[in-house]
Amino acid sequence: MRCEICGKNIIGKPMRTKIEGSVMYACNECAKFGKIQREPAKPRKPRGSRRPPIRKEPSYEVHEDFNRIVREAREKKRWSREDLAEKIYEKVSVINRIESGKMIPDIKLAKKLENSLKISIVEKIEDTQSEEFKASNIRGSTIGDIARIKKR
């Protein structure tokens, strides 16, 4: 290799030097005119990181007839709507809308209602994924699995 400054053949390892803003390879004698630079780091090959298997959290759904169940349980305990709202730290208007069926409570609110009224309105949904789809996920999906191939 030749020195980019003086043109002499470099004996040994060339020095990577920055001179007047330009980075060049120089011999030991010419390298003293600039600032010696380190070799750039070699790009690292990304390692295949192993992710933990995706665990599906069980999904929950509120019972279809939740409004009747909540109203009957509240009346059985002889609580007013205000009493129930106070016990679960919600507004009375929320209780009114739940009991009239105009509002479907989210899972958090449904759990509060279950605990205070000692009822069950949250149902666990079973995984409805077919066995065929699970098997194709194991071996990996291909475009052929998804696209319909047009035959000529």
Distance separating the two termini: 59 Å
Query: Structural class of the secondary structure composition?
Result: alpha+beta
CATH class of one domain: Mainly Alpha
Strand order of the largest sheet: 2-1-3
Helices and strands, in order, run as EEHEEHHHHEHH
Q: In what range is the share of β-strand residues?
A: 5-15%
Helical percent range? Answer: 25-40%
CATH superfamily of one domain: lambda repressor-like DNA-binding domains
CATH topology of one domain, by name, is 434 Repressor (Amino-terminal Domain)
In total, the number of strands is 5
Describe the main β-sheet briefly: 3 strands, antiparallel
Low-pLDDT parts are: none
Rg:
36 Å
Mean pLDDT: 82
3D shape: elongated
| Count of DSSP H/I helices | 7
CATH architectural category of one domain: Orthogonal Bundle
What topology does this entry show?
Layout: E1 15-19, E2 22-26, H1 28-31, E3 35-36, E4 59-62, H2 66-76, H3 81-87, H4 92-100, H5 107-117, E5 122-125, H6 131-139, H7 143-146
Antiparallel strand pairs: 1-2, 1-3, 4-5
Helix pairs in contact: 3-4
